[in-house]
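Narrative summary of target 7.
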Amino acid sequence: MTVTLYLLEAKNYFKGLLALAKRQSADNLVIWLTLTRPFVQLRDALDFAGIPPKRIFFIDASSGPVPRGAQPTENCIFIESPQDIVGMTIAISETLSLTHGKRVLLVDSLNTLLAFQSSDIVEQFTNVLANKARTLGIDVAFLASDVGSKKLGSIEALVDEVKE
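Modeled conformation, tokenized:
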């Protein structure tokens, strides 16, 4: 079990994100908290990249409440907004309690969370998720763009490794 902060190059962020999702979903059920892109867009991008979406469960805090015209889905929970830390925490806890086997929590992205929350709140949220993952024995991948990574300094101390 490892808690990792991935600092992805801003200009290739989405490409790096998809590559990480592909690697992780090969051996794990990926629980993907998305703050940057709506579930529908990610599902379509995964399909285009040949990544089976059945190995990924989404917690979408990007689209708002269930978007108009969205079809009910078994592999996505919609959260009101990236400001809803409590809603995200509850959704993650419920998803982890309902899933079994080898899992990884992917949090995309800390930069977006910092746009909606203070750095203290983001640090506390990151700490709660890291400790929950350690307790449950699952991996966590926190993602961030290398742009503005100085704001992530205190978060780096909470993870086991930082990869660029």
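The chain has one domain: 3-163.
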